[in-house]
């Protein structure tokens, strides 16, 4: 107190300095910490910018021109593919024949297909099961219902062309012919407008509601279907014969004007002894098949999944996934 009384001004200045210095030190420390945080954030942003610049180079005029040229070429290729498919669809005149007017008319068309195909197989000496109906056993005694009549007849007409081409390739035996369960007209329209990532319409017929021999299911990721662009009908054929039969059949499909796409080919051994038809008692034939004429002993079993592809018109696509070249 004595010093303060003697030197009040000097003492006051010293006290103020004593209070100001800790406050200034605290302020500087805080600023240093904030500076370090800002510096760290800036370094992170610089690293992020450099990473982005490496992943996505800045576009240049030359790269933009090259990209436009690539897009132009892709559009030309797409236009050519669409035109080729359009020509093939127009060539498939058998699908443009008017549909049967009634269930009875549809039953008669399916029955005629089965009878004619059996006769063709007999003439070509291709072994088929005595009760083979080529994927249409469900309609052995009645026609399809009105809601899926068009879909079933469409499948019947495509199947007829497929089996005819297979028989012409001279297989040892036709083991099975199957199709996808049919859709109603409304379900088909929905499928044509529904992206593949969403759920598919449930078919009106399944292995439980029809003859299970007629139908097959498969991984539709293999399909060429594209909502708003391409719709398909899928079929599965099983036959036995030498490799040359497969080669001839595939060449026929490729050379034909019908838009058929082979999506899967499976091969496995299928051993059947060579026995002349006149001497065979049926013991050496494939189970469930009549005696077969003498053929090459080493044969294979082939399973093919084939799609008939059709372009979807803009009116049918509903604007979904439309591709405009």
Low-confidence stretches: 204-208, 274-287, 319-325
Number of strands: 4
- Category by helix and strand content: alpha+beta
How does the major sheet shape up?
Answer: 4 strands, antiparallel
Strands of the widest sheet, in order across it, are: 1-2-4-3
Rg, Cα atoms, Å:
37 Å
So how many helices? 8
Determine the fraction of residues in helical runs and give it as a percent range: 40-55%
Tally of separate domains:
1
Rounded mean pLDDT is 77
Q: In percent, how much strand structure appears in the residues?
A: 5-15%
Distance N terminus to C terminus?
Answer: 98 Å
Shape descriptor: elongated
Secondary-structure element sequence? HHHHHEHEHEEH
Summarize the structure in short.
The chain has 325 residues and is α+β, with helices and mostly antiparallel strands. It is built from eight helices and four strands, in the order αααααβαβαββα. The longest helix has 48 residues, at 8-55.
What attributes does this structure have?
325 residues, alpha+beta, 13% strand
Give a verbal description of the structure.
By secondary structure, the protein is α+β, with helices and mostly antiparallel strands. Helices cover about 45% and strands about 15% of the residues. It has helices at about 1-5, 10-55, 60-90, 105-125, 150-170, 185-195, 245-255, 315; strands spanning about 175-180, 230-240, 260-270, 300-310. Strands 1-2-4-3 form a 4-stranded antiparallel beta sheet, with helices on one face. Helix 4 (about 105-125) runs parallel beside helix 5 (about 150-170).
């Amino acid at each position: 107190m004595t010093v303060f009384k003697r030197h009040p001004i000097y003492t006051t200045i010293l006290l103020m300095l004593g209070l100001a210095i800790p406050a200034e030190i605290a302020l500087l420390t805080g600023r240093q910490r904030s500076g370090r945080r800002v510096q760290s954030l800036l370094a992170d942003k610089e690293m992020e910018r450099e990473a982005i610049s490496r992943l996505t180079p800045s576009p240049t005029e030359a790269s933009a021109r090259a990209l436009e040229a690539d897009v132009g070429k892709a559009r030309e290729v797409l236009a050519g593919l669409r035109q080729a498919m359009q020509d093939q669809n127009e060539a498939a005149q058998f699908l443009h024949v008017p549909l049967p007017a009634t269930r009875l008319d549809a039953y008669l068309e399916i029955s005629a297909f089965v009878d004619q195909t059996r006769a063709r197989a007999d003439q070509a000496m291709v072994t088929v099961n005595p009760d083979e109906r080529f994927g249409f056993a469900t309609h052995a005694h009645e026609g399809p219902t009105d809601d899926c009549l068009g879909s079933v007849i469409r499948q019947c007409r495509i199947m007829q062309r497929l089996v005819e081409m297979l028989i012409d390739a001279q297989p040892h035996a036709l083991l099975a012919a199957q199709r996808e369960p049919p859709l109603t007209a409304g379900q088909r329209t929905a499928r044509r407008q529904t992206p593949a990532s969403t759920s598919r319409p449930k078919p009106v017929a399944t292995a439980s509601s029809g003859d299970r021999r007629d139908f097959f299911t498969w991984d539709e990721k293999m399909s060429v279907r594209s909502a708003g662009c391409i719709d398909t009908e899928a079929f599965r054929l099983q036959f036995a014969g030498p490799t040359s039969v497969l080669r001839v059949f595939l060449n026929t499909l490729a050379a034909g004007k019908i838009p058929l796409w082979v999506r899967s080919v499976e091969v496995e051994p299928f051993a059947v002894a060579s026995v002349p038809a006149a001497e065979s008692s049926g013991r050496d034939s494939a189970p469930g098949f009549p005696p077969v004429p003498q053929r090459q002993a080493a044969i294979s079993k082939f399973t093919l999944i084939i799609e008939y592809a059709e372009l979807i018109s803009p009116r049918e696509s509903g604007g979904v996934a439309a591709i405009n070249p």
